[in-house]
Amino acid sequence: MDDFQEVVMKGKHVFRVVFGVCLATGLTACGIGGMWMNGNPNATSHLVPPGHDWSKPGAGASARDTDWQACGGQRSGNISPDRQGATGKETADLSRDKLYAAQRCMLGKGYRYTGTCDGDIPSRYPACQSSPR
Predict the structure, then answer these.
(1) CA 117 to CA 132: how far, in whole Å?
(2) Distance (Å, whole) CA 81 – CA 91
(3) Taking a C-beta distance cutoff of 8 angstroms, is the pair 105, 78 a contact?
(4) Position with higher pLDDT, 38 vs 79
(5) Do 48 and 65 form a contact (C-beta atoms < 8 A)?
(6) Which of 53, 121, 126, 131 could make a disulfide contact with 103, Cβ separation 3.0–4.6 Å?
(7) Higher-confidence position of 27 and 61
(8) What is the pLDDT of residues 67-120, one digit of tens each?
(9) Cα–Cα nearest to 107, from 26, 60, 53
(10) Is the pLDDT of residue 21 over 80?
(11) pLDDT tens-digit series, residues 42-64
(12) DSSP assignment, residue 112?
């Protein structure tokens, strides 16, 4: 067997080993969200963007979405830190500050927060610190 054929045979062996490891990992590793990560298959089915957690008498979803955008939120109802190249901590801090500012703005527009205040992080939301819901 010449050198080229040996290299090809070793390459095939390496490919089979890598493929087998990837296949085994893919079949046994945790999936993203849902039952595989936290044991609850419905865990991701009730996620609501923070901009949709607001209600106001006489204001429908369209008015709420418009007000959310005016308060700095995205059209999707989410928040974006709008800072490219930020570190993980910087991005988290910017997102939190922007979310808090949007919540204060929505409260100022007369909206009532309908999201959850359960847990350590949500309990600190300005919307949860406001008057009883």
Answers:
(1) 11
(2) 6
(3) no
(4) 79
(5) no
(6) 126
(7) 61
(8) 999 999 999 999 987 777 778 888 889 999 999 999 999 999 999 999 999 999
(9) 53
(10) no
(11) 444 457 899 999 999 999 999 99
(12) E
Token reading at 46 = 């009730």
Structure tokens at 32: 């993203």
Closest to 109 in 3D by CA, of 74, 48, 75, 58:
58
Cα 28–Cα 31–Cα 36 angle in degrees, nearest 5: 85
Query: What burial class does residue 12 get, using C-beta atoms within 10 Å of its C-beta: 0-12 exposed, 13-18 middle, 19+ buried?
Result: exposed
Q: Which tokens is 101 given?
A: 């500012």
- 40: tokens are 């609850």
> Any bridge partners for residue 55, and if so which?
112
Q: Does 66 score more than 50 pLDDT?
A: yes
Q: Are strands 112-113 and 54-55 parallel, antiparallel or unpaired?
A: antiparallel
d(CA 132, CA 113): 10
Closest to 98 measured CA to CA, from 129, 63, 60, 69? 69
Structure-token pair, residue 31 = 């999936």
The angle formed by the CA atoms of residues 45, 47 and 53, to the nearest 5 degrees, is: 140
pTM above 0.85, yes or no: no
Length of the chain equals 133
